[in-house]
Predict the 3D structure of the following.
Amino acid sequence: MVLSRDTVSEAPPKDTVTNAKATSAKRGTQTVPDAQRGGVQQDDDRAKALLLYGTDSIYQLSPRKSGMKYYELGSDPAQDIVISSPYVSARQCRLYPTRSGLKVVDSKSKNGTYFEGKRRTSFEVEPGRTFFVGARLHQLVVLNEPMRASYPALAAILGYEDEHVIHSETPSPSELIVAAVDGPHMLITSESNCEQGRLAQIIHEISLLRDRTLIPFDHASGRQELESDLLQHCAATVLLDLSDNRERISPTLTARLFSLRYQTRLIALASAVDIANAALGERYVRKMKHIWLEPLSGRAKAIQRLLDMEFRALGADLRFNAMSAHNQAALRNYRWPDNFGSLRVAARRLLAIAQAGTLRGAARALQMDHGTLTNWYREQVRLELRLLESWPDKRHASTLG
């Protein structure tokens, strides 16, 4: 007999249902294999700081000495977090750190506290998400510890917030943090040594997938044997280094990387978008968030901060503003042909020159040819012989030779 669409099937016998339940109870619920889970597990994810969106202002949520369980935010200078604005109430809201982020409770403020487009009296916000206090220009990003710790490196790679006055394909650090949590596939393009790989690592470390393995797949090396392994990983980040390789990736692999079923996030590195189009297919690349890293030759405003960061990493007291005005301008105008590679070389050489007082002494300390160092200093970077402003006059600088 053929059953019609309206036919109601008979229920299984009662004793069959009872036996099935008993068997299930006896067997118990099995643990889902890690690669087959429907999501990722996150442990304690407490908020450690707030970032004022579009600025480099970070407000630390330091442990409370008084035993208070919340922080006060408002325009009153006596508050724990002070947002100086006529649109922010003296006592705007209270912030309660939780295991999953931050609970925000409005303190009956005049202009309100907003989350997900609505004015709310109380809400919980997870790290990487934002809320507004008083007005649209006061957008705050909740940061957990990985996000807070990664911010200086993000600013160095992407550009500080004041470098993003004009919108471009390079996101600001605050934009990148939000995008890292939202989870789109990403394509990072740049010249060589613009820290593409480091940025991909940071994106993974601050994403919801940070507890999973970052799976490298170097397409340029032709390691196709990795394809079978990649397909076994769900909820993972795949780092695809295309370099300048235009060879088409397996269509099956590409389709699965972009499939929602596998919860895989793809971060691809390439020198240009057309490289990614050739390897992945234009229709897939259009789905990716494109991040272009501007070369250091176009970031003159950032050179001071970047060099000072390198000096600190070397444990040195030397700072950019200790150099003569001519040399500061020369460093800002230098083309930095190897980008961050050139920056690190310059930091080591400038430090050695400042410490030795002569180019010859610096060359010995660096174990390099004196003529090579002199050519770099005078002809390539076009620095004057008086490196530091504190050196009294050019008679002292003449000893640099």
Remarks:
- Residues 297-400 form one domain.
